[in-house]
């Protein structure tokens, strides 16, 4: 019976970790940062809060659109400007805003 308790504890911890990494952004973000070339987390965001809205449709493994509690992001892949952002609060004043269509973003609200 003594060996059953540690085995059960390990199984429960493993199940909890798998659930966290599967259903929370941190799991996906951590995996992509470690395994994908070109995948970045915006400096204003974090592994825990950044959520991918849309991944690149080609062979690259990077996001094209993402968000967190403060901003929506569009990945540009430019050396001096890897992404643009728009505050989520500003999207209320941006008629026709669609998070994964950069042409609908009101650029005067970007920083």
Mean pLDDT: 88
Main sheet strand line-up: 1-2-3-4
Approximate helicity band: 25-40%
Q: Could you say how many structural domains there are in total? A: 1
Describe this structure in words.
With 111 residues, the protein is of the alpha+beta class. It has one domain. 28% of the residues lie in helices and 18% in strands. It has helices spanning 4-23, 25-35; strands spanning 51-55, 63-67, 71-75, 83-87. A four-stranded antiparallel sheet has the order 1-2-3-4, with no helix packed on it. A hairpin with a 7-residue loop joins strand 3 and strand 4 (83-87). The radius of gyration is 18 Å and the shape is elongated. The mean pLDDT is 88.
What is this entry, summarized?
The protein has 111 residues and is of the alpha+beta class. The protein is built from 2 helices and 4 strands.
What does the secondary structure layout of this molecule look like, with pairings?
Layout: H1 4-23, H2 25-35, E1 51-55, E2 63-67, E3 71-75, E4 83-87
Antiparallel strand pairs: 1-2, 2-3, 3-4
Offer a few descriptive terms.
single chain, 111 residues, alpha+beta, four-stranded antiparallel sheet, elongated
């Amino acid at each position: 019976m003594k060996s059953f308790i540690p085995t059960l504890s390990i199984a429960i911890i493993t199940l909890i970790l798998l659930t966290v990494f599967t259903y929370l952004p941190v799991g996906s973000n951590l995996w992509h940062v470690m395994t994908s070339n070109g995948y970045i987390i915006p400096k204003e965001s974090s592994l825990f809060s950044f959520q991918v809205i849309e991944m690149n449709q080609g062979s690259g493994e990077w996001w094209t659109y993402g968000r967190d509690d403060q901003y929506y992001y569009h990945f540009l892949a430019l050396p001096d400007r890897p992404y643009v952002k728009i505050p989520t609060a500003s999207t209320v004043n941006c008629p026709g805003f669609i998070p994964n269509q950069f042409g609908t973003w009101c650029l005067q609200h970007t920083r």
